Structures are given as structure tokens and as C-alpha cells.
């Protein structure tokens, strides 16, 4: 191959990248190959070759651009993680068949026994669309917009305070025409994602940096206290934030004191809320009447009030047996553990932390949801991802899985953090 000057290195790199389908990997590959070629070039110059001859030899050593490009395409090939997708699909099917067992409730409240099922299918379809869109968006762009996302979250809470439309006595939604959007859960998730990027610029080893980080951390929790929102959401935010603080600062003492302060804040939120003992008693009755396999006895499912999402797991156990409930629990445990596990395969530290935080949000939601549905907790207002009925929450969950899938597909990418 005849080469002439620096331009030929660029042409070689462009030729290599033509064989690589992952567009977002091109810059990284070009930088790595360029550095490798320059290193070889310097070695030949030290041996007495002219710059032109050294460049020719360096490019010759690199081999065919087509072959190298095909090899690198295998390394940077972007593909979905089907274990996650299949698990999520099973959880969605579980939610739909449980809605089918509760069709009598749907008829009583809405005059259509397939009301919840139809809504679930519609929102799942929208969620899949959101998943596909976010899966092919370069997640690294989120990092540079972290401050904007933080401000957006504050704006969402202010809008919610001014225009909220209570659903089941919970001030989390805003109505836009016939559509209800769960702004509360959306804002809390955006807060946590934004803090992953913001925390990278904070100098935690300085007093000023720590104070700044603590203030940013407490603002969302302050909104939850002032606006008198659910303890469940506050716990999700607090546990995930403490985890983020620890992996960002590695400061055990700071993490401990912040955890102590957050616990006090949670106690304040708990003291402000009243809890539905009626639904809690129904859940206990459903569990007591459940059998190992098959439908339980003595309870008419139509006694369950309109907020069926809160008792979706206990309804599932009553309708299909404890064996099916344990199977669903195993699927959830697999999903949580596997999401944390794949974070170890990510080269980019920002991407790694983003997966950990999103996985933590899912883990907290599942744990709180199952504890409530097993009659252990008497407070609840957190959707169980992919199982509970709720349009906004299904779409939010799909967006979370989409970001994780996006990062996984680019697991070989490296970024500055």
C-alpha cells in the first residue's frame, strides 16, 4: 500500500472504521489506533528510518484495514442482552394474567372487565417504543446534561405542586387531557440520574465540596417532605442516594452521617402520612387464604379496591398459588442480581455507576412492593416494575431498562469520568 504523509494514517483509520457498525465507537478506535501507529512510527525513526519510510512500515505492520476493521467490529458489536429482555417479558406477562384474574374489579369500577388489561397492553407498547428510542441514544451525552436534568427535576416538582391531580389520594399525577402522568416518580428518577453526573465534579475531600454535595442531595428529599409525599418513594430515593454517595466518595464517615440525617427525614415523612389499614388487612386475608398451587378460597377478589396495583403480588399468589408467587420472586431476584452483575463488564465508569443506580432503584421498588404484599409493611406507594398496573410507571421502567441496555451494548466504550 502506497502511503504519503499523515493523510494516509487518517485514510487508514477511516477505512478501518468503515467495517465497524458501532458509530459511537469510531472516535475511541481512531484514537487508540492512531496512538499505536505513532508509537511504531517513532520506533522506526529511532532505528534511522525517515519519517515517510517509518510511517509506511508502521501502517504495513498494522495489516489490512479491512481485516482489522472486521476484527474490531466483533469486539465492539452492539447487541441486546436477551436475558434481561426475556425476564422483563415474563414479568409483564405475569402482570397481565394477574389483571385478568382481577377482571371483576375492572368491571365494577369501569364497566369493562378488560379495562386494566387493555391499558396495560397499550402502555407496554408505548414503553417498548420508549425503550427502543433510548437504547440507541448515546448515554454518554446524559453526563454533560446532568445539571440541566437536575434543574428539570426541580421544575417538575414545582409544576406538580401547582397542578397536581390526586389519584387514590396520592398527589403524584398531572392530567394532560385524558392522560395522567406520574410526575413524582419521573422527577425522583431524573434527580438520581442527574446526581451520578454531578457528583463527578464535586471535590468531596474539601469542606466546601461536601456541603455542596449534601445540599444537592437534600433538595429532592425536601420536596418530598414539604409536599407530603409517600414514604415508599422517599425510601427509594434515600437508599439509592446513600449507595451513590458511597461509590462516588468512598467516604464511610460522610456516608454514615448522611444516612443518619436521611433516617430522621424519613421519620418526618412517616409521621406526616396516614396509611390504608383496610387494604393492608385485605392483603393479609388474601395470603391466609392462598394455597400452594391454584386459586385460594374464602375471599372474593372483588373486595379489592380500585388501587389494585398496591396488592398485585398478593392477588397473584391468591389467584395462582404460592408456587407461582415464588417463581415470580425468583425472576425478580435474577433480574436485580444480573443487572448489578453486568455493571462489572462496563469499561466506562460513568456508565457503570449509572447501571448501579438504576438497578438500585429497581431493587428498592421490588423489595418495598414485595414486603408490602407479604403483609410486612403497612405503607406503600411505589409501583412494582413491569408487574403493577400504571401507565407512567411502566414507561419509566422501560426507560430505565433502555438506559441499562444502551450502556451494555456499548460496554467496550471508555469515557472520561
TrEMBL record:
Span-the-membrane segments of this chain are: 82-102, 114-137, 149-167, 173-197, 209-225, 231-247, 254-271, 322-342, 354-374, 386-408
Localization terms from the record: Membrane
Q: What NCBIfam families is this protein classified in?
A: perm_prefix_1
Main subcellular location: membrane
Q: Which GO terms describe its molecular function?
A: lipid-linked peptidoglycan transporter activity
Mention any one GO cellular component term assigned to this protein in its UniProt record. Answer: cell division site
| Species assigned in the record | Clostridium paraputrificum
Mention any Pfam family matching this sequence: FTSW_RODA_SPOVE
Keyword Membrane attributed: yes
* Gene Ontology annotations of biological process type: cell division; regulation of cell shape
Q: Which UniProt keywords apply?
A: Cell shape, Membrane, Transmembrane, Transmembrane helix
Q: Transmembrane helix as a keyword?
A: yes
What protein name does the entry list? Lipid II flippase FtsW
- Membrane topology for this entry? Multi-pass membrane protein
Amino acid at each position: 500500500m502506497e502511503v504519503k504523509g499523515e493523510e494516509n494514517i487518517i485514510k487508514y483509520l477511516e477505512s478501518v472504521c468503515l467495517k465497524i457498525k458501532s458509530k459511537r465507537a469510531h472516535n475511541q478506535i481512531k484514537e487508540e489506533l492512531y496512538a499505536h501507529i505513532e508509537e511504531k512510527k517513532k520506533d522506526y525513526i529511532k532505528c534511522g528510518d525517515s519519517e515517510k519510510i517509518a510511517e509506511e512500515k508502521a501502517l504495513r505492520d498494522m495489516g489490512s484495514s479491512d481485516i482489522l476493521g472486521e476484527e474490531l467490529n466483533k469486539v465492539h458489536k452492539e447487541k441486546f442482552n436477551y436475558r434481561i429482555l426475556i425476564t422483563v417479558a415474563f414479568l409483564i406477562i405475569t402482570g397481565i394474567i394477574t389483571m385478568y384474574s382481577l377482571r371483576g374489579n375492572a368491571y365494577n369500577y369501569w364497566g369493562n372487565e378488560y379495562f386494566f388489561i387493555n391499558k396495560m397492553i397499550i402502555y407496554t407498547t408505548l414503553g417498548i417504543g420508549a425503550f427502543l428510542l433510548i437504547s440507541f441514544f448515546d448515554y454518554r451525552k446524559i453526563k454533560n446534561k446532568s445539571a440541566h436534568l437536575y434543574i428539570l427535576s426541580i421544575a417538575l416538582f414545582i409544576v406538580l405542586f401547582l397542578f397536581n391531580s390526586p389519584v387514590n389520594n396520592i398527589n403524584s399525577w398531572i392530567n394532560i387531557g385524558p392522560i395522567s402522568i406520574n410526575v413524582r416518580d419521573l422527577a425522583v428518577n431524573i434527580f438520581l440520574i442527574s446526581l451520578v453526573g454531578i457528583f463527578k465534579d464535586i471535590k468531596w475531600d474539601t469542606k466546601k465540596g461536601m456541603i455542596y454535595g449534601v445540599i444537592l442531595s437534600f433538595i429532592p428529599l425536601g420536596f418530598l417532605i414539604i409536599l407530603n409525599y409517600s414514604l415508599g418513594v422517599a425510601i427509594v430515593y434515600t437508599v439509592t442516594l446513600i449507595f451513590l454517595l458511597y461509590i462516588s466518595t468512598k467516604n464511610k464517615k460522610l456516608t454514615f452521617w448522611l444516612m443518619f440525617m436521611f433516617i430522621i427525614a424519613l421519620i418526618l415523612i412517616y409521621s406526616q402520612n396516614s396509611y390504608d389499614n383496610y387494604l393492608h388487612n385485605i392483603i393479609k386475608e388474601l395470603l391466609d387464604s392462598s394455597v400452594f398451587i391454584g386459586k385460594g378460597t374464602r375471599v372474593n377478589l372483588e373486595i379489592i379496591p380500585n388501587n389494585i396495583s398496591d396488592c398485585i403480588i398478593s392477588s397473584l399468589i391468591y389467584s395462582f398459588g404460592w408456587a407461582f408467587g415464588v417463581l415470580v420472586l425468583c425472576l425478580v431476584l435474577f433480574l436485580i442480581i444480573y443487572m448489578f452483575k453486568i455493571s462489572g463488564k462496563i469499561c466506562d465508569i460513568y456508565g457503570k455507576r449509572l447501571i448501579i443506580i438504576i438497578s438500585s432503584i429497581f431493587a428498592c421498588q421490588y423489595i418495598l412492593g414485595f414486603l408490602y404484599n407479604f403483609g410486612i409493611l403497612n405503607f406503600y406507594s411505589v409501583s412494582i416494575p413491569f408487574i403493577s398496573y400504571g401507565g407512567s410507571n411502566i414507561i419509566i421502567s422501560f426507560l430505565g431498562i433502555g438506559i441499562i441496555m444502551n450502556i451494555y451494548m456499548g460496554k467496550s466504550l471508555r469515557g472520561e469520568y
